Amino acid sequence: PSCLFFFKQLDRIIIHQQVELLEAILGTETSSKYEIKNHLGQRVYFAVEENDCFDRNLCSPIRSFTIRIADNTGREVITVNRPLRCNSCWFPCFLQELEVQSPPGTIVGYVVQNWDPFLPKFTIQNESKEDVLKITGPCATCGCFEDVDFEVKALNEMTIGKISKYWSGFVNNVFTNTANFGIQVPVDLDVRIKAVMIGACFLIDLMFFENSLDGL
Length: 216
Hints:
The chain has 216 residues and is of the alpha+beta class. The protein is built from 4 helices and 12 strands.
């Protein structure tokens, strides 16, 4: 799609969360805002999470959400929808799933959690719910604030990229719970699947890292 033009030559996508001052001071969850950048640090899109205060404070990190991603002119180019789901490995009938649309109203793919008692595992699917890629995380996602990598694999299990949680700058961000992620994929990957990978990154952040700095 023409609205995903900026993804065509990208093999690395950086996602940086913008933390509201009120949230940093009071610890009150406000709507998440993100900048999506290329490998040079230039913003190509920005994103805003939509949900209500009840969801954010009482249902996090299992809350439902809609994330609207717009280009620098303010035109919405990607919509990420996630229903309210259980966040326990003991309930495989309620595993995580989200839908990615681009442009809004046109489904380009899905991110589906796979049941596993030890490892975080997900499948990237196209608009027809056909498997395209796999994502496998480490057995422990809290690495004492070391970078955490989720491997992106082809269906034959060959590793072709990764989604990384970066802890660099932790000292400066300890009170703001700022999320920094990097997505590395082949440059010739379908731009629609690159858009779905952004949805996967948001889901991984919510499931494993959103409350990782609580109490510090």
